Amino acid sequence: MLRSLADWLAATPPSVALQARPWTSATSESVHIVALSVVFFSAILINSRLLGIGRAGRSISQLTQELTPWIWRGLGILLLTGAVQIMAEPVRVLVNPVFWAKMVLLLAVVLMTAGFTRAVRRNAAQWDAAASRPAGAAAFAWCSTLLWVAIVVCGRMIVYVSSAFL
Amino acid sequence: MRAAAAALLQTIQSWPIAAAVRGDLAGSEWLFPIIETLHVLALTLMFGSIAMLDLRLLGFGRRSGAVSALARELLPWTWTAWCAAAALGTLLFISRAESYVHNFQFRMKLLCMAVAFLNMLIFQFGAFRQVASWDHGRPPAAARLAGMLSLMLWLGVVFFGRWVGFTS
Fold first, then answer.
1. What mean pLDDT is reported for chain A?
2. What ipTM goes with this model?
């Protein structure tokens, strides 16, 4: 079923146009990496502060307030350029378990981040002091870091694994 | 001179470690994708931390907090990630040294990086020395220019880097 959907997509005019111009894919992937840098580094910076790793700077509430808008904006660009990638190579991406694993991990980390942001906004003072931080803070930081790393790894591996399923 | 350089590149490429990264040794087929993935992880941390400071210099985002404090917070990330990305990139390079050296995008990537370092040095020993006088306000023109150049040059490094993968 996925295969027929991918084949149908590949025959649509936008996909045909993208397939004929490989440079559009390369450009879109470059923008994807730039947006990824913003999102990934922002998340890692917040997580490392939650774990007390690295040099202290801004507080948790400051970091969250300043960086989450960048995370959501960056994610918007990632989804957009990701859609271009799908249209450029529908079969390679959609008929690929690594891509679907990536989407599940992405959904998980987005929901986690939204919950975390809301919790910090409600109770900034409690999150800022290491002693009063909720018990799950460290667990959240590790989970979020592992999920983001896994998402990046999946993204790169889509290219290498795809050939095995065609 | 040219012959010596070509011979050197061939020697490097014949090292066992180069063959392993290339996937030529038994069981090393996944080494290149793995190193490449780690290179991407390192470069995103590097570019993310650089862009965050550059954008502050350019006046984007919140102006709360001193520039010097932000630099102190971010620079350890930048240097650690840069060293990791450079070391991993060197491994990728030696696997196909001859082809990369002649690759236009690869050359442009190195050029952008060299100019970015020069720009950083000029900023470090120029506008940043008087940071105390503009730490909380709008950075002076020289600092804004340095931020803009840094952002453009590192964007160039990322773009050309991605293109190397398509053209080599």
1. 93
2. 0.93
Residue written as token pair 């025959």: A11
What digits encode the pLDDT tens for the residues A42-96? 999 999 999 988 777 788 999 999 999 999 999 999 999 999 999 999 999 999 9
Segments making up each domain of chain B, as ranges: 2-167
Tell me whether A37 touches chain B (CB under 8 Å): yes
pTM above 0.90, yes or no: yes
- Do B115 and B148 meet the contact criterion of CB atoms below 8 Å apart? no
DSSP 8-state class, residue A11? T
Whether the pLDDT of residue B80 is over 70: the answer is yes
CB A20, CB B35: distance < 8 Å:
no
A28, A33, A41, best to mutate vs chain B, most B CBs in 10 Å: A41
The residue type found at B132 is A
Q: Which two tokens stand for residue A96?
A: 């690929």
Q: Tell me the residue type at B31.
A: L
Q: List, for residues A15-30, the tens digit of each pLDDT value.
A: 999 999 988 999 999 9
Residue A72 contacts B where some CB pair is shorter than 8 Å:
no
CA distance A56 to chain B (A): 7
- CA A83, distance to chain mean position in Å, is 13
Put simply, whether A146 touches B (Cβ < 8 Å) is: no
Query: What is the reported pLDDT for A145?
Result: 98
CA distance A31 to B154: 13
The average pLDDT across B94-110 equals 95
Query: Nearest residue of B to residue A67 by CA position?
Result: B61
A21 close contact with B: CB closer than 8 A: no
Separation of alpha carbons A78 and A110, rounded Å: 13
Whether B86 contacts chain A with CB within 8 A: no
